[in-house]
Amino acid sequence: MLRIREISSIFCVGFLLCFSAVSAQTQRNSPYSRFGLGEIGTRSASANRAMGGTSFAFQSATVVNFANPASYVAYDSLACLFDVAFSYENHTLTAASVQKGSSISFDYLAFGLPVLRWWKTSFGFQPFSGMSYKISQKKELNADTILTSFYGEGGINEIYWGNAFKLFKNFSVGFNASYLFGEYRKNRTVEPSDKLSWVSLTSNANFVKGFHLMTGLQYFIPVKEKGKFGLGLVYTPAIPISSKFQNMTISQYMDTLDILYKTDNQKIKHSMPQSIGGGISWGKGLHYFIGADFSWTNWGSYAVNGINDSLVNSYRMSLGGNYTPNPTGAKFISHITLSLGGSYEQTYLCLNDVPLNKWGVNFGVQFPVKRSKTTFGAIFEYGQMGTTQANLIKEDYFKVTVSVRMHEAWYQRRRLE
Known about the structure:
Blueprint: H1 4-24, E1 39-40, H2 46-49, E2 79-94, E3 98-116, E4 119-141, E5 144-168, E6 171-192, E7 198-223, E8 227-236, E9 240-253, E10 256-271, E11 275-284, E12 288-297, E13 314-323, E14 337-351, E15 354-368, E16 375-386, E17 394-409
Antiparallel strand pairs: 1-4, 2-3, 2-17, 3-4, 4-5, 5-6, 6-7, 7-8, 7-9, 8-11, 9-10, 11-12, 12-13, 13-14, 14-15, 15-16, 16-17
């Protein structure tokens, strides 16, 4: 059992690791992150990612399932949870040529705590979206070669605080209140092969801040001693957020620099899209679980400064499960959890009249620590996004995610004999 002072130290160290990891992480180069808010993060715990992201009807005493805040009610009344994950990804971009790369990224940091027997809480930090791309095009014009480069960087982060309440037996509701913040920049340079000629730079920066809300509910129906049938539902309303927009165009001719156009800190309002999702599941305690999810997001209505940026409504479906041979057995191998899952997604991009789809398959393994509910895990994922049709780019990726889930006593009153 950890004392409260020791647990407080874990919280502080965890947040320091979190923010240092975010500042030092290298983001993968994806040309599709040029659009909208960039590449939207997975935003689910490692235990759920190992099952293809299946999470809406999933509930566990040892998992911070922030994809459905109603699941927090499953926490032990005398225990705290600490969950952190990092990923390594190797990807291949295929178009007229093949480009390979790799990156390391911070995924999330989450805590789960009991308040009362019917009230549990959670808080954490994770990237909401990321932008990193560099694209170059050459064009012949008047016996000169014009090089146009597009490049961008940045992203949006999310700090959340969630609460779940058990209204009656097997039924719970919850919410995650989040604060979104960050910035991303989209730049374009036009440069002729004659270095003594003009050069043009256009830079757009967007500084985002605002609140986000997710609500959820779960209901489980026991079937004698065979297991439980679960239902889950999540809903995110369209909530306005604010941005400060900067736009600047610069032209340079030899040593002369001219600012042709500039707007600084122009305040704009836009709304994050509404989203709804549901899931079903069947499971028996820590022994096994199988579930399926479906979600839909209204990205078609999203626009920044009146620009939709080729975004369309998106949907995602997943199927997955896990299996632990004998959660109460004496042998170490009987406590190892194996997970398998897959997902299919129509992303929020439609380019050249071609919807961009994404699919992935996941396999995970979770190893327990002796005489503890703390576990170390690894997830292996292979997937594909996009196509080479209509002059588009196909992305193949292989990702390895490592995670640590600590489950320790939060408070216990001492008894004096």
